[in-house]
Amino acid sequence: MTYLQATFPGFHPVTPICGTQYVDVIVGKFYYCGVTMSSLVSSLISMAVTMIVIFAIVARLRFGVPGRLQLLFEWFFDYVRREVGETVAKDATFVVPLAATIGLYVAIANWIEFLPLGFSQYFVPANSDLNQTLALGVLVFWVVQWYSVRTLGWRGYFRRFTRPILLTPFSILEEFLKPITLALRLFGNIFAGVLMIYLLSQLPIYVSWFGVGIWKAFDVFFIGTIQALIFMLLTIVYFGMAREGIEEELERRHRLEPAQAPMRN
Q1: DSSP 8-state code for residue 152
Q2: How far apart are CA 258 and CA 265, in angstroms?
Q3: CB 98 within 8 A of CB 128
Q4: Calpha distance 121→37 (Å, rounded)
Q5: Is the peptide bond before 164 cis (omega within 30 degrees of 0)?
Q6: 15: three-class secondary structure by DSSP
Q7: Nearest-CA neighbor of 99 among 205, 8, 228?
Q8: φ, ψ (nearest 5 deg) of residue 244
Q9: pTM, entire model
């Protein structure tokens, strides 16, 4: 009997780069120096498609009556800019292209699942690998920390975790759990879709093609788009949370300025 897909999803072989040393954990082997080629290839495909879409939009930009692609992009960019202005700040302009690019990349990485990628272990949906989503989560985490220090200063940054002082350990733990929950939410939803496709593909081929097609249309273009939107919006929310206490910090600096003025004179 013929099946659409014979390999079980979730298997991402690791290719050692500088040695075969690893830590044997419950869920598998953690290599000190290695890459998952399936994630690398699918990520490169997603990045290439994202860049092609962006350059195609830029090449078609024109004044007057915009085309459909430009109109869609302008609507999306205005939506992101409005969300950043309401959630973070009007002057946090660098968050707009960052959040928009992350949202577009995650969406495209989810949409390529519609293609028949299961014919090779090196062509799998990018976000069905936890390594990929964790990398995105860690990237967002460190940029948010940099933005918080840049906005509040070191004093204001550490004071952000002491409101109230008794919950400081929980505030620090919550901050470090943000990239993990961000990654697991995206990974869980995309992997569940891949797993459903695998289960449907185990039916006889004269039946499974219909079920797989219907499920892919729903999972890829609805669930995949929703998850990309959630990832992007949570990224914006984390930037907004990184500014907590900005009013108190600005007020403290304002009070210090008159006291320091005579010293400078």
Answers
A1: H
A2: 11
A3: no
A4: 9
A5: yes
A6: strand
A7: 228
A8: -60, 130
A9: 0.82
Residue 82 has pLDDT above 50, yes or no: yes
DSSP states along 176-241? HHHHHHHHHHHHHHHHHHHHHHHHHHTS-HHHHHHHHHHHHHHIIIIIHHHHHHHHHHHHHHHHHH
Give the CA distances from residue 215 to residues 114, 201, 212, in Å, rounded to whole numbers and listed in that order.
10, 11, 5
For residues 252 and 226, what is the distance between their CA atoms, to the nearest angstrom? 41
How is residue 41 written in tokens? 């290839």
CA dist 132 → 109, 113, 167 (Å): 10, 15, 32
Cα separation, 4 vs 208, whole angstroms: 7
Q: How far is C-alpha 216 from the geometric centre of its chain's CA atoms?
A: 21
pLDDT at 8 over 60: no
Tokens 């690398």 sit on residue: 40
Fill in the DSSP letter of residue 113. G
Query: Do residues 99 and 232 touch, judged by C-beta distance below 8 A?
Result: yes
Summarised one tens digit per residue, pLDDT across range 168-209 is 899 999 999 999 999 999 999 988 888 888 788 777 777 777
Whether 4 shows a pLDDT value over 80: the answer reads no
How far does Cα 113 stand from its chain's mean position?
Answer: 17
Buried/exposed code over 144-154 (b: 16+ C-beta within 10 A; e: otherwise):
beebbeebbee
